[in-house]
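User: My collaborator and I are trying to settle a disagreement about how two of our proteins should look. Neither of us wants to argue from intuition anymore, so we agreed to look at predicted structures for both before our next call. Could you fold the first one, then the second, and keep them clearly separated?

Assistant: That sounds like a sensible way to settle it. I'll keep them separate. The first protein:
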Amino acid sequence: MLLLTGVAPAPWKAATTPAAGADPVVSEHFGTPVTDPYRHLESLDDPHVQAWLRQQADASAAIFAAIPGRESLLARIRDFERAVAFTVTQPQRLSSGDIFFLKQAADEDVARLWVREADTAADRMLIDPDTLPRANADQHVAMDCFSASPNGRHVLYTCAADGSEQNAIRVFDRRLGSHLPDLIERVETVYAPPCWLDDGSGFVYSQIRQLDANQPEADCYRFTQARLHRLGTDPTHDPHVFGSESAGSPPLKALDFPAVVITPGSAWAVGQVRHGDETDLTLYAAAVASLGDVDVAWKKVCDRRDAVLSFAVAGDAILLVTTGGPAHAVVRVDLAAPAFAEAETIFAPTDMVVETVATARDAIYIEAIDHAIRRVVRLPYAPAPSDRAGASAGRARAAVVATPPDEPSATIAAARADVPGVLLKTQSWIRAGGLNVFDPQTGRLTDARLAPEGREPPEWLTFTETIVESHDGTRVPLSIIHRADLVRDGSRPALLEGYGAYGFTFPMSFTPHRLAWLERGGVIAVAHVRGGGTFGRAWHHAGRRTTKPNTWKDFIACAEHLIAEGYTSSQRLCGQGRSAGGILIGRAVTERPDLFAAAHIGVGCTDMIRFETTKNGPPNIPEFGAVTEEEGFRGLLEMSTLHQIRDGAAYPAVLLTHGINDPRVAPWQSAKTAARFQEATSSGKPVLLRIDYHAGHGLGSTRRQRQEELADIWSFFLWQCGDPDFQPASGDHE
């Protein structure tokens, strides 16, 4: 174990990075003036703004290159990742026994699409993204999602260039070994992955509108439409089957996301409506055979007030995860005559929070959260109606799928209504685990032999689960990964990360590159703050809109715990949040700058007053609030890092990273926040802006990009924590 000797970070000259030049714009909201000193940086096409961004990016790159330990740290990150021969994600099984999956070898930058053919048990690569068309040689293309037709002959997939998430559907014919001419642009896949018809003749998908040149980008997600494509036909003539432009469709609002879900073996299609980024769904049902008809009859299954989080279809029934109670529950509704008020509760746990439900040929499989651990519960299909006894009988029939003792957390990797059993991913914070087949006949897990076997964790590695009391007495779970021989004397660098939005919960998981930090004696901690879903809907709603301060206050409480318990000290504590987690870390730093040595804000939401003007801003109103409403404005101002930065405050070192092609959080959010921190801080510590010109929000980045970014972030942290191996020589960074 490498020991720190308490070296002070090498001094920093703020003049290293160019000043943006403030040009204040003042707006008034409900009687409150709000100053925006860097509004001009929102004009990313302006040559002066482009030049400033390049100067910031070049200055940051030069500084990272001057940190002496960076290259050796990058080498260790690569060593640990190369030790895993390949990774497998998104496995899909067909009733034929064929298994499709994305596979990325240790020396490959992006994942390829493979199939394991049942008749030969051999693996065959189908699609290599490196061979797909691109605008220029500097671009890279990455696959987003894929789906095989029920008979396995065709595979549709989506891909985009340079992390832009501007996804297009292409279709590959396995029999011919070539692509079909079918090509569909502007496909929405986050909430609406494409679904095949049972006969494989076509598929349903959701498409984002094409904006005119004079339309604001904030209109991008207005009036998204679900459409039906038949193979071999012109996609421009694809009929609208669900959405505001579809005949027979229920009325939808402009920012609703419509999608159609088709389940193998069911005659019913589900019309799913997501209301922006709200978690509560509205669902409808119609006969699959009627899709595209002018008189299609969509019947309402549930509304927003019914608090349905997720669903799955089994024949003529739909299974809904409802979040009305503390632990959530699974209820059953008849699709032929849906009536939510008469829904039958089939599973209502008392000690776990149900999150998702899936159907297989043999049973219902339920994924639930148990603090940091995820459990998978198998619930056999109900007996005859006369034998039913409601939720208590469901609990009696249900059984948690047993996992290996050293891999307690399980997630459903693949389930299909016409295939028995499921594929499960099992792991822990310190063990990679593997992909396993659950056999309903034996009740046992066996290695699917799709991915390398989980390697034994280093014997020096362990983790601790604890509970921290927050500012208002709420008990917040905290997961701490560290060396078993850690001496808690406050001398270790610690990385505390959190998110706290959309009800998302950090799953217990292992990533090999973490070992490069941990082997040096560093600590990694995950704060399960409010705004996430650790304890269900109430936990989520206790950290959004006007209750959002709980998110960063929970994070601060976890930081204080790490310091009080000797895991680290304020001189060596580094905080991190990405995307919506940028609110968490940005406000933690601005509220308690004394707690942190350094902070990383990755593709972060940091200007919440102007977020609604961006492409992805309007769909986020349900989560964060509307600036046009007084209560919403007050909440947004409070959570907006940019507007909470105070002149003369002694802020820790701050690194902001962003991909220039980010479609979810506009890069100017990081630009404006970096400029404001650089102007305001009195600590003399660095504030850097790292821009990747071939990346977006992180999805679609190459392995090399992720490794380089990680080496920059951790080198920056270790420099600021005083690690003697990461101190630039005098003048190297001035």
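The second protein, kept apart from the first:
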Amino acid sequence: MTAPAEALLWVLVLEDLLAPEGLEGLDEADLDDALSRLLAPLEARVDASTQPTVVAWTAWRPQSAIASARRPSSWSRAARRLEALLYRLAAQRPALHLLDLDAALAADGVEAAFDARNFYAAGCRFSRKGLARLAAAVEPVLQRIAAAPKKVLALDCDGVLWGDVVGEVGVGRILLGGDGLGRAHRDVQRAARRLSQAGTLLALASKNNAADVWEVFDRHPDMALTRDDIAAWRIDWTEKAANLMEMAKDLDLGLDSFVFLDDNPFEREKMRLALPQVTTLEPPADVTAWPGFIDSLDLFARFDSTPEDAAKAQQYRSRAAFADARRGATDETSFLGGLEMEAQSAALDATGLARAEQLAAKTNQYNLRNARHTAAELAALAASPNTIAFLTRLKDRYGDHGAVGLTIARIAGDVAFLDSFLMSCRVLGRHLEAWILSRLAVQLRDRGVRWLFAEFRDSGRNAVAGAVLTAHGFAPWRGADGDARRQALAGLSPIDGELYLVDLDTLIIPHLDLFNAARS
């Protein structure tokens, strides 16, 4: 695992900061005041740095169950107030991430994670087992800070979504719903649907007759999933690895975005050998453990959910429909003109920061520089008087695609630098980049900017983004060191890619007639 640069882990043991004696009689205001003073160094850290801070806290201490049988103990009240204050801080500071150690340690037994001998001998409250569990619990949090979650859960049908083989026993005799294993399979579907509602795409990869599978979806009363929950599917007798490759192409996603769940160990091993980029899960042997297994997966978990996350499946289905219609169109200009596209810019306010961070973290193909800004960094950029930053939203005949683009430009005098220019792959092919550049140019001219620099950093995956520059008036630039524009640029950003420049006074952007008048 590669941890984010300069990330800080603070292990907070409440008893090291607050003595349990003397808490009796304190009201919540008194507790908040005492705890706020103890958390002041943490608050100073997250206010002074945009680098990630992870607080792993525990309020566990030995207590009698009888003492809290009729009312919460003073220590329990202090623990709850600590949790509330920490989450209040995190809500206001995007660089702060929290880990409830008591919940993380409970899997192995909280009491076994602590060792009084270690505390009195060396000042460490944890046992060796507890330290190992602490490290294991912190690792996925640091991984998520450094990398975006997986995007697609590809599911087998027989043996996963329901028990038995539908093609052999029929819809009415598969194990689904009721009690026992049937209930477990329905709960597998419910767990998958929860992932879908949080933004994970669901796909079906099943060796089956398609009519049999869709009959279960349409007719079985205990199906928790519906057709609308499924973003892509391949239901046939082709090898599942080949089908995943086809679905990845349809969705315009990398295979490393996929997670594969199958009840057959032979199919799982074939997938690992054929497509090592795909994360192939090794589920528990007992199907009754599968709902909890899916719920506990860190692969799809994210720190924040946005309105766009809940609409992911419909957005990707719309993208597939757009691609099909475009392939059948004889006149592309007329086709695009008939989409009734309406673009709109949106500020990076509190509601937009989470989506902006998602776009910066996971957009690879249409991303000029691959600058992976955190929410805290984005908030600082948006607040700077020398920065223009906005999201782009798009609607068309295929639906509301939500916030699909992020643009950031830094300004120094009459020079600006395109810090971030990225767009979701699901809206490619609509010339939305033209509208975004036009909107940016208007704002830059209003600020007295004439020269706009852009940098292309070749990641091996973003060639489509590099092509936007020359197609919209930018030209390669290798100005002399003494050029005033280079000096201004040096104060805006270090450059290690290919540099391009455009004169905003002469810039003419094509394709703007494809877009309806939009509010900004």
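Some points you might bring to the call about the second protein. Residues 117 and 123 are 9 Å apart (CA to CA). The chain has three domains: 8-146, 152-295, 332-514.
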